[in-house]
UniProtKB/TrEMBL annotation:
Membership in a protein family: Belongs to the LysR transcriptional regulatory family.
Domain HTH lysR-type residue range list: 6-63
Alphabetical list of SUPFAM superfamilies matching this protein: Periplasmic binding protein-like II, Winged helix' DNA-binding domain
Molecular functions per Gene Ontology: DNA binding; DNA-binding transcription factor activity
GO CC annotation terms, alphabetical: protein-DNA complex
Name of this chain's protein: LysR family hydrogen peroxide-inducible transcriptional activator
Transmembrane domains' residue ranges: none
Listed InterPro entries: LysR_HTH_N (IPR000847), LysR_subst-bd (IPR005119), WH-like_DNA-bd_sf (IPR036388), WH_DNA-bd_sf (IPR036390)
Swiss-Prot/TrEMBL keywords: DNA-binding, Transcription, Transcription regulation
CDD domains xref list: PBP2_OxyR
């Protein structure tokens, strides 16, 4: 009696469909056409003799067994990734492909300034970047879609290891002249909760900002409108309120061309920790530790 074994590609299609709940988006995530992904899943169902997904015009619904198989597929794919990682780790350090997730409040401000040096010092490294919110990036890490994540801590990312790169202070940003009487360092008590603009849910910087202020009423009163830090800056520049910005964004020139003023926040937790995060027990741990050292030194040189 012969047993059909699913291919890793078919399992990737199945997991992507479960993650995205849509054939088109799942196909994009797998870098294939929708027809290719659909055909691969139908072949999988046909050969194992089980319906995994109920298809309608509006809804993609996994069967109970389909859910269990998708959960198992995630573990199989992670083991396959670790197997490949063992082979890569046995070769030259920081060489070959490495997929790194980066959150949106870090990517545009830090990467353009440190990637040229990384490419110059480690030409054999092929670094693929994936920008996602903190929650999505951690899910991608545990699903094996990325190898490591450039993240802002504290954040609950599951069973991971990390290396802290540097501290990123928070600043209060407000329209020029609006707070002329404020001291050089702004107390959290001086922030008007009715005018505080924050990123929408899904961005860990929102939680870091609220935690730093340590004022429970801010969570209820603050307007969580921004989809990006650049959007928040435009709102503040138009006099719609005040916001909190990380130091790396200021260093990268996010306020250029605006009339916004920014002053350090005076609070107990007025900073976030920028860290490189990877799965616990990863066979490429030495690579990640080396990469963290490279990123840390590059960031220190920029800040100096």
């Amino acid at each position: 009696m012969s047993t059909y074994l699913p291919t890793l590609k078919q399992l990737q299609y199945l997991v992507a469909l479960r993650d995205h709940g849509h054939f088109g988006r799942a196909a994009e995530a797998c870098f294939v056409t929708q027809s290719t992904l659909s055909a691969g899943l139908r072949e999988l169902e046909s050969l194992i003799g089980i319906i995994l997904v109920e298809r309608t015009r509006r809804v993609v619904r996994f069967t109970p067994l389909g859910e269990k198989i998708a959960d198992k597929a995630i573990r199989v794919l992670r083991e396959a990734e670790d197997l490949a990682g063992m082979a890569r780790a046995a070769g030259k350090p920081l060489s070959g492909e490495l997929r790194m997730g980066v959150i949106p409040t870090i990517a545009p401000f830090l990467l353009p300034r440190i990637l040229p040096r990384l490419r110059s010092d480690w030409p054999d490294l092929k670094l693929y970047l994936r920008e996602e919110t903190s929650r999505a990036a951690c899910e991608s890490l545990h699903h094996g879609q990325v190898d490591c994540v450039l993240l802002a801590l504290p954040y609950a990312c599951g069973d991971v290891e990390h290396e802290t790169l540097f501290e990123d202070r928070l600043f209060v940003a407000f329209p020029k002249g609006e707070k002329a009487d404020l001291p050089d360092i702004v107390s959290a008590d001086a922030i008007d909760e009715s005018r505080l603009l924050l990123l929408e849910d899904g961005h860990c910087l929102k939680d870091h900002a609220l935690s730093a202020c340590n004022r429970p009423e801010l969570r209820a009163e603050a307007a969580m409108l921004g989809t990006s830090l650049h959007t928040l800056v435009q709102m503040v520049d138009n006099g719609l309120g005040v916001t909190l910005l990380p130091e790396m964004a200021l260093d990268a020139g996010i306020l250029s061309g605006t009339s916004i003023e920014a002053r350090p926040l005076d609070a107990e937790n007025a900073a976030r920790q920028i860290a490189l995060v990877w799965r616990k027990g990863s066979p490429r741990e030495k690579d990640f530790q080396l990469l963290a050292g490279v990123l840390k030194n590059s960031a220190a040189a920029l800040r100096a």
